[in-house]
Write a structure and sequence with these properties.
Number of helices: 2
Strand content: 5-15%
Radius of gyration: 23 Å
Number of domains: 1
Helix content: 40-55%
Strand order of the largest sheet: 1-2-3
Structural class: mainly alpha
Shape: elongated
Length: 94
């Protein structure tokens, strides 16, 4: 069932408000949402920074795990995290 553009924007805004700690307060079903304009603008302007920070963390984690080497018969070690990497179990019959 396709949603209207209005419903899609409303759903997306509610998700961002919940995920990133937005200032929008929703009332009862059918009621108007309430928000202070200054708080809303401050949150909205900082939202891009929060998203970029999350992207940077994911990229840094991936880069950290790139530095690996073999250790022993079947092990792998990642010195940058001071630990070993567990291998997946083999399927029965392999």
């Amino acid at each position: 069932m396709p949603q209207s553009a209005y419903e899609e924007r409303r759903r997306r805004l509610a998700y961002l408000n919940q995920r990133y700690g937005g200032p929008i307060q929703t009332g009862r079903k059918g009621g108007q949402p309430r928000v202070d304009l200054a708080e809303l603008l401050s949150w909205w302007n900082g939202l891009a920074d929060q998203v970029q920070h999350a992207i940077d963390r994911e990229r840094d984690a991936a880069a950290t795990l790139l530095d690996q080497h073999n250790y022993g018969r079947a092990g792998r070690v990642a010195p940058s995290i001071a630990g070993s990497i567990k291998s997946r179990r083999q399927k029965k019959g392999n």
